[in-house]
Amino acid sequence: RSKENGKDRYTFFQADMKANSETEAKIELELDEAVKTDRFVLAFQPQVNLRSQTITGVEALVRWDHAERGLLSPAEFLPVVEKSRLAPVLGEIVIDKALAAAKYWLESGFDFGRISVNISPSHLASGQVVDHFKSAMAKHDIGPERITAEVLESVFLNDNGSGHLAALKELYELGIHIELDDFGTGYASLSHVVDLPINGLKIDRSFTKQMLEDPKKEAVVNQLIHLARSLNMGIVCEGVENEAQYDRLRMMGNFSIQGYLIAKPMFFDAMTNWMRESADDLYFVI
Ligand code: C2E
Ligand code: MG
Ligand code: MG
Ligand code: MG
């Protein structure tokens, strides 16, 4: 009897696996088409210093403008991209579009600080990421002092010959800033932060969200801010949604914040308008 159950489960599992890999294969074909027909769009979200309230950076966030299903968020397609040969292909597209936008803003006279690009583990491991940055920098005439690469802390944990670390060191030596994204959610230890080529930490929005109710989360945020300062690293606190969070963070130090309180991610034209408007008005938060 148990053997039968086992067999049923086995059959079910196999069927499920097949369905998933068929779906993934279909998505992969569609992704190929989307690359060829230029269906990837960037949204941009500003980062501002919480004291001066001036812009210190802009994060580029990719969306897939799907022909039938409309705009898809990264969570809906990045997992498939990561497992496919398309990771460096999409990565290159994002870098190119992000630097093109940066060029336009600089030429329009907006000092937005740095353009921040999320770099996936597969792209980092592909051996192509440094060339992708170098060619986009040359094409758009953007210097490394204008660029941040955001990487997940997991890329530091299991290098295992993947080449993640070598690629990051090359980017760092070029002068591109490296920031650890979603910091606090993975397992990076302090020794990683101290020894590796990192210019800044992005405190994950789960901490920002829980900080007001949970004194332990607040203590972690406080310690990260002090740690960053003593290591001469920058901080960006993610997911700031309300003034209560903003006020609490403001008491903790002088750093940058990002979140719906400041602005939701916007497409290029809206981001450009936002820069134009906020250039005349320093006090757009309170
Ligand atoms: P992330 O890099 O941590 O980006 C921040 C995410 O939080 C974005 O979601 C943003 O829209 C959202 N967010 C910003 N402020 C708030 C807030 O105040 N409240 C809440 N609830 N959410 C906020 P999005 O655009 O859906 O991106 C999700 C993740 O997908 C990103 O997390 C990043 O890991 C990945 N991603 C996005 N674009 C790219 C890309 O071009 N390349 C790669 N490799 N990954 C990307
Ligand atoms: Mg990010
Ligand atoms: Mg993040
Ligand atoms: Mg995140």
From TrEMBL:
<protein>
    <submittedName>
        <fullName>EAL domain-containing protein</fullName>
    </submittedName>
</protein>
<feature type="domain" description="EAL">
    <location>
        <begin position="24"/>
        <end position="279"/>
    </location>
</feature>
